[in-house]
Fold this protein.
Amino acid sequence: MKILFLDQSGKPGGAELCLIDIAKPYRDRALVGLFADGPFKTLLQQNQISVEVLTTQSIQVKKSSSFLQGLKSLRQIIPLIIKVVKRAKGYDLIYANTQKALVIGAIASFFARRPLVYHLHDILSKEHFSQTNRRIAINLANYFASLVIANSQASQTAFVQAGGRANITTVVYNGFEPKIYQTCESDVRQLQQELGLIGKFVIGHFSRLAPWKGQHILIDALAKCPQQVTVILVGDALFGEQDYVQQLHRQVTALGLKNRVNFLGFRADVPQLMAACDLVAHTSTFAEPFGRVIVEAMLCGTPVVATKAGGAMELIEPGINGFLVQPGDFQELAQVITTCLHERHKTATMAHNARKIASQHFDVKIINQQISQLLSSKFN
Ligand code: UDP
Ligand code: GLC
């Protein structure tokens, strides 16, 4: 099956990293069309996946945009649609991986007469999207998509609650290559030394810097924890959240935590860094659609605490393979951190369990088989 994948981003967010794994088995007969240039293109090329940047003009519609703003962007998107229609004629299927890709992909699928798959990586709730954006996504998916692959039950439920057709949706979790998450002791030790982490209790936060990812909650929690607890913040502001970055730095200074919080920026060595942590914290203040970092921490054998909402609740069984805390509750988070600090043996057993379960449930080979079966049963 020849697939034209579409993604709006040039940056490697979770949806884009997931797409690399999905596109890989089709790489000798697939093209990934991007609506922006950037490091994601390079990552695809490094994985020998054909990629073309279809436009370098960013589409001026935001998650909060109104209908009128949406209409204004039409002038911009028509040339892009024409290009996608032309490309689509050489493929059997259009696979839209993001919301703007759905808009373009849906219209192109109509004109090119090719079926459309929509991989839903978002929770279509009012916290995350304007009503207009939700309506557009739901209507386009309902009318044009033959299949909606949701990245979690939480994303699927929100889609259906917002009016999406239940009978075209199915849940497929993100897949991971467990081997990538095994780091040898000496490499871990070296990294800890380089980063000045030896002798400390290290909490890692791995996410783009954005208000709803809740790095500020972790910093507030840290202020309540014993002195040996330190934080590494791994990730960058991928979508222009510079005000939030400034706010985080001011918060760290105001709380006197400069020596205990290390901003590492975007890193390509997440598995090694996670292995160098005593605990990984996921602190999203809104429901996380899936939460790759949670599974990644499990695969590294590092204990994980996440917020009790969205996809995280499908990944963590509290007390068995991790901890859950209320979103936004820094006091509860500080308590969990302190428990992990004092009960290392118990927490290590939990992390060991988590690694075993995650390696079985999220193995990329199994996930890719699920996708391949879905596509061939629908479109062959
Ligand atoms: N990530 C990364 N480098 C960083 C920070 C994050 O490679 O510096 C990766 C992380 O390992 C994860 C992805 O970015 O695979 C983020 O995906 P997630 O689903 O957790 O959140 P998203 O940002 O997509 O909402
Ligand atoms: C999106 C979601 C994230 C999910 C990722 C992969 O970026 O925000 O929760 O893990 O897609 O499906």
The CA atoms of residues 135 and 162 lie 8 Å apart. The pocket of uridine-5'-diphosphate (ligand 1) is lined by residues 13-15, 17, 206-208, 234-235, 266-267, 270, 290-293, 296 (CB under 6 Å).
